[in-house]
Amino acid sequence: MEQIDKKAAILIEAEKLFAEMDFDAVSVRDLAKAANVNIAMISYYFGSKEKLFEELIISRMANSQTTIQSIATDPALSSIDKLMAVVDFYTDRLMNNPNVHRMINRELSSSNRPELRELLISKIETNKTYIGKMLEEGKANGTFREDADMGLVMINLFACIQYIVGSPYYSCKMLDVPTEAQLFDPEFRKRIKTYFKELFSHYLLKNQ
Amino acid sequence: MEQIDKKAAILIEAEKLFAEMDFDAVSVRDLAKAANVNIAMISYYFGSKEKLFEELIISRMANSQTTIQSIATDPALSSIDKLMAVVDFYTDRLMNNPNVHRMINRELSSSNRPELRELLISKIETNKTYIGKMLEEGKANGTFREDADMGLVMINLFACIQYIVGSPYYSCKMLDVPTEAQLFDPEFRKRIKTYFKELFSHYLLKNQ
DNA sequence: TACCACTAATTAAACGTTTGTTTTAATCAA
DNA sequence: TTGATTAAAACAAACGTTTAATTAGTGGTA
Fold first, then answer.
1. Angle at B74 between CA B68 and CA B79, to 5 degrees
2. pLDDT surpasses 80 at B176
3. Which chain B residue shows the shortest CA-CA distance from A114?
4. Least CA distance to B103: which residue of chain A?
5. Based on the domain organization, do B138 and B85 belong to the same domain?
């Protein structure tokens, strides 16, 4: 009985295929072939193709809430330190798991599975709340400009990195990065982190 | 002979459906029903579902090259003026045509139709070249900081607005905008424009 | 150890739908 | 009459899922 191996194999191959193509563009036969299992195994282990898809996203969507929370509530960090830590964290988190974030990306932009979309948003929203409070705190303690648009700062950070990760082929061409692999290299990560840190510092800090 | 009317009706309904759902999630029967035409009409007028999809995107993707070019090469505008004009132009362009940009968005993030993706990128790339030169010119004439990351500035602007337009349901929740309609209101557009103008001014200008 | 019963895992084949597309025939305008 | 337009029906192919049969593994009993 090799349940675990085969189930894991299906998830691994499904992640690759669903990252590259739409839900409906990937057939259960494609999945079974890629994972080297019988077609019936997908229904057997997951119930249906859709449940496999949901289980895949949910299982791969690592829990980032505790990290964000600990950054946001760390008394040893200044407001600007916290912001820098969030930039670092999100850049690495998204770049380390490009496949699942491509899937999430596409899921958020369609109405194909509204319940799943709602679930994803609710998970993301928790972090948004922490970071939102963190930025407002920076305003309150005099670190950040009063008239800064914190809502757009947040979505700017998420959107931009998610966009690069979600459309790597396009992003390479736009950023003159030769290969998709280089997009996920430490070197390019450093470039993104530096960009956002400087960008937000200039925009948010009073003495700039 | 009502060719034009029926063909136009198909395109109008297809735009709505393809904006909301994936290519494969929309069937030709859905399209025919929405447009109140016979199923055979799609093949008759467009050749195939895929050609309809391509024709739709290409026809709706208004030509923005001439506008960007005229901004970038206008001798009456300073470097910072040009940047502000580009922010205004892109915000309005994307907000005025959310449906097609949702489709483009999804198309750029998948490998379902590589030739179409390549075509879209080539069209977008022209603008990128103009804006890239414009920003480098700002460095050369001493307006912008030498060490600013112009590649990321460009993709940041495109990505963020495209992301908001492409995932309006999600963006509303993140930005505390009550309804999707309000996302495309003049008021919110103004907010986006102001944000990016201030953001890039602080980041790019030397005296900041 | 050997045998049995039982459960879980795996397969190939078939299921009924739905898919995009085409055919055929009828209808319409010029 | 000619050629474009419409409609209904039919097409084969692909879809996700299920069935039925077989194999593999487990635990208990003698």
1. 85
2. yes
3. B169
4. A109
5. yes
**pLDDT tens-digit readout, B3-55:** 668 899 999 999 999 999 999 999 999 999 999 999 999 999 999 999 999 99
* Structural domain boundaries, residue B74: 62-204
Q: Are residues B126 and B48 in the same domain?
A: no
Domain boundary among the residues A58, A74, A90 is at A58
Sequence-separated (6 or more) residues with CB below 8 Å from residue B36: B9
Residues of B in contact with A124 (CB under 8 A): 170, 174
**Residue B131 has which token pair?**
């804006």
Q: Pick from B22, B23, B26, B89: which is nearest to B62 by CA?
A: B89
Q: Is the CB of A40 under 7 A from strand D?
A: yes
Q: How far apart are CA A169 and CA A57, in angstroms?
A: 22
Count of domains forming chain A: 2
Pick B202's closest partner by Cβ from A23, A25, A203: A203
Q: B180 and B103 in one domain?
A: yes
**CA gap B22, B24 in Å, rounded:** 5
CA of A204 to C1' of C15 (A): 62
Residues in B closer than 8 angstroms to A166, CB to CB, are 109
> A9 to chain B, minimum CA–CA distance in Å?
22
Q: How far is A204 from chain B (nearest CA, A)?
A: 9
